[in-house]
Amino acid sequence: MSQRPAQSLQTRLLTMVLGLVTVVWLGAAVLTWFAASHELDELLDSHLAQAAALLVVQQTQTEGDGDGGVADAPELHKYAPRVAFQVFHEGRLVMRSSNAPLLPMSDTSVGFQTVHLGQRQGKGTSWRVFATRGAEHDVQVYVGEQVGSRKTILWAVLRSVLVPMVIALPLLALLLWWAVRQGLGPLRQLSAVLGQRRAQALEPVDLPDLPLEMQPMVQALNALFLRIEHMVASERRFTADAAHELRTPIAAIRAQAQVAQGAGANTAQRDHALQATLAGCDRATRLVEQLLTLARLEAASALTTSPAVCVDLGGATRRIAAELAPGALARHQTLELEADTPSPVAGDEVLLGVLVRNVIDNALRYSPDGARVRVALQTEAGQTVLRVDDSGPAMAEADMARLGERFYRVLGSGQQGSGLGWSIVKRIGEVSGAQITVSRSALLGGLAVVVCWPSSHLG
Amino acid sequence: MRILLAEDDPMLGDGLRAGLRQQGFQVDWVRDGLAAEREVASGEFAAAVLDLGLPLQDGLNVLQALRARKITTPVLVLTARDAVPDRIRGLNLGADDYVVKPVDLHELGARLRALVRRSSGQSQDVLRCGDVVLEPSARQVRLVGELVALSTREFDLLHALMLHAGRVLSREQLEQQLYSWGYEVDSNAIEVHIHHLRRKLGPDLIQTVRGIGYTVARSQEPS
Question: How high is the ipTM of this complex?
Answer without folding.
Answer: 0.72
